[in-house]
Every structure is written in C-alpha cells, then in structure tokens.
Amino acid sequence: MDTVNIGLIRVLTLSDQKEIDRHGLIIEGAFSGLKVRSRCIEDHPKGLYDKISEEEAKPKIISLAKELRKGVEAIIVSCAADPAVKELKEILNIPVIGAGESLAAVSRTLGGSVGVITITNNVPDPVRRGLGERYLTWKKVEGVESTLDLKEGDILAHTLNTAMALRKQGSNVIALACTGFSTAGVAPKISKELGMPVVDPVLAAGSIAYNLMLNKECWREDVED
Amino acid sequence: MDTVNIGLIRVLTLSDQKEIDRHGLIIEGAFSGLKVRSRCIEDHPKGLYDKISEEEAKPKIISLAKELRKGVEAIIVSCAADPAVKELKEILNIPVIGAGESLAAVSRTLGGSVGVITITNNVPDPVRRGLGERYLTWKKVEGVESTLDLKEGDILAHTLNTAMALRKQGSNVIALACTGFSTAGVAPKISKELGMPVVDPVLAAGSIAYNLMLNKECWREDVED
After folding, report:
1. I need a surface site. Which of A78, A83, B183, B186 has the fewest CB within 10 A?
2. Is B89 in contact with A106 (Cβ distance < 8 A)?
3. Is A108–B105 a contact, with Cβ atoms under 8 angstroms apart?
4. CB distance from B102 to chain A under 8 Å?
5. Assembly ipTM
6. Which residue from B74, B191, B214 is facing A203, i.e. has the nearest CB?
7. CB pairs under 8 A between A and B
8. From CA A54, how far away is CA B67, in angstroms rounded?
9. End-to-end CA gap in chain B
C-alpha cells in the first residue's frame, strides 16, 4: 500500500523521541497510510501558552518546517494556536495544516453550536475564526496554565466538568483547543460521558491530511485498472 | 471491529439501489469502520440545481432524515448546497453533516487560497460561508447544467481545464462544489495532473463523519485495557 509522508512539528521541547512522536503515532494509528515524521522546537519546555511565547516560537517553527519539507507531502503544526501556519502556507508549496484550524473545521461541521475548551484565558485566533457563526462559547479548564498541566491525574474530571458546563449552555459539540488534550487522550472518554462529539485537535489535523492519502489511493487503483 | 452507522441522503432520484449506494460505497471504501445506509428523495430526477429545486427538496430531505435517524449515529446530506442541513442540525440530536460545509472545512485547511469549481452560476452558500477568508475565486465547469451532465465522457478534460484556470489565478487547492464530481471520481485524477490537492465533497463529508468512529475506537481500546 502506498503511504503519504507527513512532517509534524511539536511546539513543546521534549528530549525523548518517543514523546516527540506521540502525536504522530496517534495520527498513524487512526489513519492507515499516513506516515508521520515528528520534530520539536528548542527552548520551549512549557510549550506555547501566550502571544509572547508564540512569537518567539515562530521563526523556529519556520526553520524546522523548511528542514522537514524535503520528503514530505504536507506539514502539520501540532498546536491549536497555529503558530507560523499562515506564514508557512505562503512560503511552502505543500499543504501546511494547523491543528487549530483543523479543530475548527471538523467541529463546525459536526455541530451546530460549538463550545470550546481552552487552557488559556482566550480562544486561539484560528479556532475562533475557523468556527465563524458556529462558535457559541468557551471555557478554560480549571487548574491548568500550560500543556504540561494536562498530564495530571485529575485532568479528565476537570475537563469533563468544563464540557458539561458548555453543554448546559447549548453546545452540541465540544472543541478541545490545545493539543495537550490529545496527548492526554481525553476526547473519547468525555465524548462517551456526554453522549456528543468531542473533537481532538491532533486527530482533526490527521483527518485533513488523510485527504491527501485518499487521492493517492485512487491513483494507485487507476494504475491497476 | 466496532462500526459507526451513518445515514446518507442522495438528492438525486435514482431507482437502482446500486446507484443510490454509490456515495456510501465511496465513504466505506475510504474510511474503515463507517457503515453507510443510503436513501434518495423522490421526484428529483435531475438532482438540485437552483434555489427553487432546493426549496422543493427540503421537506423531503427532512422527512427522509427523520426516517433514517433510527439506528444511525450521524446523517450526511450528500449535496454541496447543504439543503435542509441547517434545519436538521436544530431538529435532530445527532450530527448532521453537509457535503458543502465539509468540502469548505477540508479545503480551507488544506490550502491558503481556495478555488471553487461549480456546475451552476454561483458558489453554494455553505461552501462560500465555510471558506471564509480563504475563498479566492470560482469557475463553472463548461457544458454542465446539472449533476447528470457530470457523467459524460469528456467531463474530466473540462474539469481539468477549469482547475488549471483557477490555479493560474492563484488557487493552491481546488474545491469541487457538486457531489456529482464524486460520482464521476474526478478529484484524484485532476489532483495528480495539477500536483495540488483537489477536494472531493463526498470524501470530505466522510472525513468529518470518521471523527465519530475515532472516538468509538478509543472506547473499545479502553475496554480491552
């Protein structure tokens, strides 16, 4: 079977390649045919959590994307704030997929009224913009200040409570606006409890990248005809 | 393996169940675990091609969706104009996915500047609205007035010419704004010729529905832990 090679950029500095590969493995597990090569930026041990850390990270993301670009057919920036995604879409001649815009794209289509869960005191711009008229409201998950805090044991309960509050306000789909939620794997558990879709940003980005694979699959069939 | 059952509504009246099932089969072939049950509306032998035919079809789509609703976890309306999708999102308590909004969602994320190919003299509202600031331009494919004309032999060449014109105008992704393009299977062929993503509306809707499957898969893994 053919594969599509995807480059993935982690915005959290990690030393263990297994940890760096985690989002890539989530995507490979869900989308047969995608092969993900992951790298992380330097000197961001707490990830990105405000405008200043995002701006500092941008040139590093652009530089890493240029390195990764050789041998891949698309690049995913695995952060819901989509740092440098706009710039990279202009610089590179392959698709550059932000986890934030992907999250918005899938969420707005699965639901009529989207509630957003964040780890910061604002909804990331690409998520808000991508949701457009489908955006309903947002809420920050309690006791979390950076993606690192999403690893704690009781984060599932906090996130579930937040999601329940958003459902009460009329949301019929929940968008998890930090890729740390993907690392923690909370989306399916919350979805089951709530009985409604909860969208994971890393899997949303995978869904978009998979469309490149679908085209390639069809080419293969043509050759065999 | 668990499956997710999806109901799919064709807005083109067909008598052969094989033909009715065609979009469902495209989705099942691309997304392992989705099981699609398809039905078509009555008395629309040319499909939907203008505001009048869309309005006439709406109550039929709503009625069919209510019938299909039992035993499915989401409903796809397989038409790029998303007829009755807004209404159904309010009436039903499961996700209702329009092919038009799905097309826009995937296209805006895969590209920076989206060119839309239509079969009518306008861009369907949900496609235009969903693309937002990523919308660049549109062009009608030559010699086509309804989805039936997309079956003709030279439609691939006409669509490719249209896509090439949109690329010349600066589009870096092409959105095919009629599910008849999916029936004709033109997206991968054009994508290969152009060397850029061409988004198929039925596969885009499948990508969104697949997110429900991803959640269910994770539940299953939890049980096995």
Report:
1. B183
2. no
3. yes
4. yes
5. 0.94
6. B214
7. 128
8. 49
9. 16
A4-99+204-224 and A101-201 share one fold: yes
Q: Give yes or no for A211 touching B (CB within 8 A).
A: yes
Say whether B102 and A108 touch across the interface (CB within 8 A). no
Domain boundaries A4-99+204-224, CATH class = alpha beta
How far is residue A102's CA from residue A199's CA, in Å, rounded to a whole number?
10
Helices (H), chain A: 17-20, 22-30, 51-68, 85-91, 99-110, 125-131, 155-168, 180-184, 187-194, 201-224
| H or E element in which residue B14 lies | none
| Chain B residue closest in CA terms to A111 | B95
pLDDT value at residue B130: 96
> What are the structural domain ranges in chain A?
4-99+204-224, 101-201
pLDDT of A218 reads 61
- Nearest CA to B184 out of B164, B211, B157 is that of B157
Angstrom distance (rounded) from CA A4 to CA A71 = 10
Domain A101-201 classified CATH 3.40.50.1860? yes
- Give the gap in angstroms from C-alpha B105 to the nearest C-alpha of chain A: 5
Nearby residues of A203 by Cβ (< 8 Å), 6 or more positions away: A26, A27, A30, A182, A187, B211, B214
3-state SS of A111-166 is CCCEEEEECCCCCCHHHHHHHHHHEEEEEECCCCCCHHHHHCCCHHHHHHHHHHHH
Q: pLDDT, tens digit, for every residue of A133-148? A: 999 999 999 888 778 8
Task: Look at residues B48, B40, B90, B42 and name the one whose alpha carbon lies nearest to residue B68.
Answer: B40
- How far A89 CA lies from chain B's nearest CA (Å)? 6
